[in-house]
Design a protein that fits this description.
The chain is of the alpha+beta class and 162 residues long. The protein has helices at 6-17, 23-30, 34-46, 79-90, 116-125; strands spanning 66-74, 95-100, 107-113, 133-140. It has five helices and four strands. Helix 2 (23-30) packs across helix 3 (34-46).
């Protein structure tokens, strides 16, 4: 796939909204018949535009009431030590997102926990014991304003002709 057309973009938008659509429902929504729609979805998957499908679970419903933003500072920023730290972080289920960041700090993590006590224990027993950790700074979410995994696609549409 070299370039996304209006049908590809429509498919991506619809699947971001509801990945459980049947192929027939998706085809109807984007204005294609079922077979071409199915081929396009497969092509988008094979080209890596669609990385996977998953259920979005309400963390509060499963008892994870705390969302913490944790900045970890590395003691030394050499390639090997940073990769070792990345690999260790990637194995921790409570870390739901991790970014290598610019500015102050090395990694910014999103961590979930049952409550503040369990987060505190997790931070002391796990995060501070990761390889190469020099310091840790934590902020807590006081409420979600927006928590969507949907990406904007409007920048991929051609500008209207004048």
């Amino acid at each position: 796939m070299e370039e996304l057309d209006k049908y590809d973009l429509a498919i991506l938008e619809e699947l971001q909204t509801d990945a459980r659509l049947t192929n027939a429902e998706l085809a109807q929504r984007v204005g294609l018949s079922a077979a071409p729609c199915w081929r396009r979805v497969r092509a988008l998957e094979q080209a890596g535009y669609i990385k996977g499908y998953r259920a979005e679970i309400d963390r509060h419903k499963i008892g994870l009431g705390v969302l913490a933003f944790v900045r970890l500072d590395a003691d030394r920023s050499t390639g090997g030590l940073t990769r070792e730290m990345e690999q260790a972080i990637a194995q921790i289920p409570e870390v739901v997102a991790c970014h290598y960041i610019s500015g102050t700090g090395t990694f910014e993590l999103q961590v979930v926990a049952r409550d503040l006590d369990s987060f505190s224990q997790f931070a002391r027993n796990v995060l501070l014991n990761l390889p190469n950790v020099k310091d840790m700074h934590t902020s807590f979410s006081l409420g979600e304003v927006k928590a969507s995994g949907a990406l904007p696609l409007s920048h991929l549409r051609p500008a209207p002709r004048k």
